[in-house]
Amino acid sequence: MPGKAALRVRNLRKTYKDVVAVNGIDLEILSGECFGLLGPNGAGKTTTIEICEGLTEADSGEVHVLGLRWNSDAPTLRQKLGIQLQETQLAEKLTVFETLSLFRSFFRQGPGAEEALRMVQLEEKRNARVGALSGGQKQRLALACALVGDPELLFLDEPTTGLDPQARRQLWDLIEEFKAAGRTILLTTHYMEEAERLCGRVAIMDHGKIIAQGTPRELIASIGVEHVVEFSAAATTNDRVLDLAGIGAMAGVRDVRTENGSVLLHVTELHKAVPGLLDELGRQGIPLTELRTHSATLEDVFVHLTGRHLRDE
Amino acid sequence: MSNHPLVQLTLMRMREFIREPEALFWSMIFPIALAAGLGIAFRNRPPEVLKVAAVTPQLAEALRQEKLLDVTQLSPQLAEEFVRTGKVALVAAEAAEPAGGVVYRYDDTNPEGRQARMLADQAIQRASGRKDAISGSDQIMREPGSRYIDFLIPGLIGMGIMGNSIWGPGFSIVDARRKKLLKRIVATPMPKHDYLLSFLLWRMILLPVDVGIPLAFGAWVFGVPLRGSFAALVGTCVLATLAFSAGGLLIASRVRTIEAASGLMNLTMVPMWILSGVFFSSQRFPDLVQPVIKALPLTAVIDALRANMLQGAGFAQMAPQAAVLGAWLVVCFGLALRLFRWR
Fold first, then answer.
1. Could you tell me which residues come within 8 angstroms of residue A288 by beta carbon, excluding any fewer than 6 positions away?
2. DSSP element (H, E) containing B243
3. pLDDT tens profile B166-194
4. pLDDT tens, position by position, A19-74
5. Quick check: B194 and B185 in contact, CB under 8 A?
6. Cα A256–A260–A266 angle (5° rounding)?
């Protein structure tokens, strides 16, 4: 039933001692979509997802999961959800197949352990001990453990954190397959590439609040820049100082910032901004040592909104 | 059937256990090694022969009449040196004139010296013509059931049940909590009582091994008797396992680190090793603390096992100890259910 709300969160709050982890957030995830909670470490993503998973109790606010509520329908909900937690270490002495058989035994229905192995492409590791798996294989096993109940809603908390790029891409392929099969997924991540690639819609979280929400394309469009130009100039030669104001005044430049000795420009039209920049540097007599451009990303959206990078902390 | 969560969870316990060689050693080989070591150390020896020295042929001849003395005749100087270095327990010499008689030189703080003094004097008095006023004869008792090893085996069985039942579940739970496996597992529809029950079920499966090994070893090697009802023996062990496992669950109900769990477990077990009469009778402690000692679960198990194995007690005679164990089971399990944290 695409379009029906699989998860609805209203005005959720959670405080730990003196830290406000979640500070009044609203979310609505539709059935069949892959929704991403993007934000730096400590933004409140894990607390939010664990409240939705029924593992943490909120101080206030409403959570409806698949139209049900945790305080009245927990046993039913547990059967319908697939959950992958951050940093779970499965029993090291069990084999992959034994682990899946164990998790499968907790659910009334769903694919068998063999089927789940196939879904995450771990067939060749069937009889390997969990302790002998690589990080990526452990993460795929954790994913399989979340799938054995044939969940209506899949929660993935930082599914690729700590993995090497190859293992990460492998996991993305799997998640894309689940997406294509029409599963509803809520995932948290602090990798903007991950959110951009996997998620139909994204909510950006910072300090317990959602600061922006929409499709990646909408979010990027909302900051009014399409491209980022980054350059370094040998500014100290013959005592000339780069005139940032002059560059900021160029047509199509929305924002100028310096960062680690480089200058970052947010621009709307790349084909006009780059020649303009070269002319301006020539006029100022400063040689260019490095020039890079990229299309604006969710990272740029986060920087635009908070002035910080996702992975600053 | 094999897809029931309880079966799968118990299989997990079994797999984790048999794939951990150290666990196998500590829970199976160690109790046997301990029983064998203590059994040898405290075995009933034939009465010991004491080495003594005499400085004259007459004295040596008189002393040789006593079978428990090994007599050497030595010069006075050499005899003096031997007694000082402990090579002989006593030297018998003629006393200087005018008093005459015999002088015994020995260390009176050494039990061997005192015993040698008694035996030597008795031999010399008899050789000099003393008659016993009344005749005595000996009847030797070395029956199985009254030896140290008979006392020890039930103690070791009780100690083994306590150790395995507390460490086993306690460590698994704290380890699973530390690795966030506990949190992961309650995020599934798994019935929570199945998780806790799987520990009890696994201890029950191991019970024949836990108890059977020291019991069979004692019976086979040392002839330790099994005089009471076997069903009552099994019943006591089952009840003890349940009570101590509940204690293990209680200890592990909130602890987050292995170190904290070890500390709590030692705090629970070490006093009982000392007080509950594993190695020596708990009767040696003052009367004032006896009610406390009797209320300890380990005392209850060991008293019940000794009564059963050595005195042939059945269900009826073991009821007080069963009541103590039952009370511990109910209290610990109730508290564990109330206090248990799944994350």
1. A231, A232, A233, A278, A281
2. helix B230-251
3. 998 999 999 999 999 999 999 999 998 89
4. 899 999 999 999 999 999 999 888 999 999 999 999 999 999 999 999 999 999 99
5. no
6. 25
Does residue A207 sit in helix, strand or coil? coil
**Collapsed DSSP state (helix, strand, coil) of residue B148:** helix
**Which of A224-228, B262-266, B291-295 shows the lowest mean pLDDT across its residues?**
A224-228
Contact (CB, 8 A) for B310 and B281: no
| Residue B56 to residue B75: CA distance in whole angstroms | 8
Identify which of A55, A107, A145 has the shortest CB distance to residue B189.
A107
Task: Say yes or no for a CB contact (<8 Å) between B184 and A83.
Answer: yes
Contact B15 A105 (CB under 8 A): no
- Assign B137 to helix, strand or coil: coil
Question: Which residue from B12, B184, B187 is facing A94, i.e. has the nearest CB?
Answer: B12
Residue B59 C-alpha from the chain's centroid: 45
State the average pLDDT over residues A282-305: 86
The pLDDT, as a whole number, for residue B198 is 92
Closest by CA to A116, choosing from A137, A88, A97, is A97
To the nearest whole angstrom, how far is the Cα of B6 from the nearest Cα of chain A? Answer: 9
What are the tokens at A72?
């009245």
Identity at B265, one-letter amino acid code: M
How large is the angle between the packed helices B192-217 and B5-18, nearest 10 degrees?
40
Residue percentage of chain B with pLDDT more than 90: 43
Distance CA A94, CA B160 (A): 27
Give CA angle at A125 (A121, A128), nearest 5°: 155
Sheet with A227-233, edge to edge strand ranges: A253-259, A262-267, A227-233, A288-295
Distance from CA of A16 to the nearest CA of B (A): 16
pLDDT score, position A192: 86
Which residue's entry shows tokens 């096992």? B305
The token duo for B134 is 């009344």
Is the predicted pLDDT of residue B265 greater than 50, yes or no? yes
Stated length of chain B = 343
- pLDDT for residue B252 is more than 60: yes
One-letter-per-residue 3-state SS of A126-185: CCCEHHHCCHHHHHHHHHHHHHCCCCCEEEEECCCCCCCHHHHHHHHHHHHHHHHCCCEE
Give the whole-angstrom CA distance, residue A55 versus residue A52.
8
Residue of A102, A103, A141, A147 to mutate when probing chain B, most B C-beta within 10 A: A102
- Average pLDDT score over chain A: 89
Alpha-carbon torsion (A135, A141, A147, A149), positive or negative: negative
Alpha-helical (H) ranges within chain A are: 45-52, 70-80, 96-105, 113-119, 135-147, 165-180, 192-198, 216-222, 244-248, 270-284, 298-306
Q: Please give the radius of gyration of chain B, using alpha carbons only, rounded to the nearest integer.
A: 29
Ramachandran assignment for A3, one of left (phi > 0), alpha (psi -120 to 50 degrees), beta (any other): left
Task: Establish if B258 touches chain A: CB-CB under 8 angstroms.
Answer: no
Instruction: Identify the three-state secondary structure at position A64.
Output: strand
Would you tell me how many other CB atoms lie within 10 Å of the CB of residue A267? 25
Q: Is the pLDDT of residue B294 over 50?
A: yes
Collect all residues with Cβ–Cβ distance below 8 Å to B178 and sequence separation of at least 6: B256, B257, B258
Q: Quick check: bond before B98 cis, omega within 30? A: yes
B residues 17-36 near A, CB within 8 Å?
19-20
Question: By C-alpha distance, which of B61, B62, B65, B60 is closest to B88?
Answer: B60
Instruction: Specify the length of chain A in residues.
Output: 313
Residues B109-150 have pLDDT tens digits of 888 888 889 999 888 888 888 888 888 887 766 666 777 888
